Amino acid sequence: MFQVTRFLGATALCAAALASLSAAPTAAATAAPTAAIPASPVGPFAPPPVRDEDRAHHLTITVRDAGPGKDGTYELYCRPGRGSHPDPAGACAAVDRSTRAGQDAFAPVPEGSFCTMQYGGPATAHVTGVWAGQHVDATYDRRDGCRIARWNRLVPLLPDLGRAAS
């Protein structure tokens, strides 16, 4: 019986709180709106506006130990493809190809994956920036078959070092 009474009391309290929120506005609230608070068609709980930097597709790619002509730091902007990357259009297309609805194109190899024991060389890459409004901070290496395949999925964003695994 105590629990039912407590539940009914909590329900009444919630109803009273809702009633106070939907009650007639006070005189201060009906005064002319101030210029400091912009009017919103969705109310006070609208999401913040999308910033230009969140719309951008900008990546910085740093490649090491991949060999002459492949090591370096490159800037990439997509839509349209431009920047210091050797193949901006191809790099943007590689990331677009790897992007699937609800999936992270830069996701690491899942924990517990069974990977072939092969070594793809000492090359490493670090990709940072913003892609599709999401912040990116991903590292790449070629120490086993899964990581080689992950690298190869993003060629030419990352340099083509051979297709030992796919």
In words, what does this structure look like?
The protein has 166 residues and is an alpha+beta fold. Helix content is 30%, strand content 17%. It is built from 5 helices and 4 strands. The protein has a 4-stranded antiparallel sheet with strand order 2-1-3-4. The longest helix has 21 residues, at 2-22. The chain is globular, with a radius of gyration of 26 Å. The N and C termini lie far apart (65 Å). The relative contact order is 0.14. The model is unreliable at 1-24 and 26-35 (pLDDT under 50).
The total count of helices amounts to: 5
Strand portion: 15-25%
Strand order of the largest sheet: 2-1-3-4
Helix content: 25-40%
Distance between the termini: 65 Å
Summary of the model, kept short:
The chain is an alpha+beta fold and 166 residues long.
Topology:
Blueprint: H1 2-22, H2 27-30, H3 52-55, E1 58-64, E2 72-77, H4 88-98, E3 124-131, E4 134-141, H5 145-153
Antiparallel strand pairs: 1-2, 1-3, 3-4
Task: Summarize this structure as a short list of keywords or feature phrases.
166 residues, alpha+beta, four-stranded antiparallel sheet, 30% helix
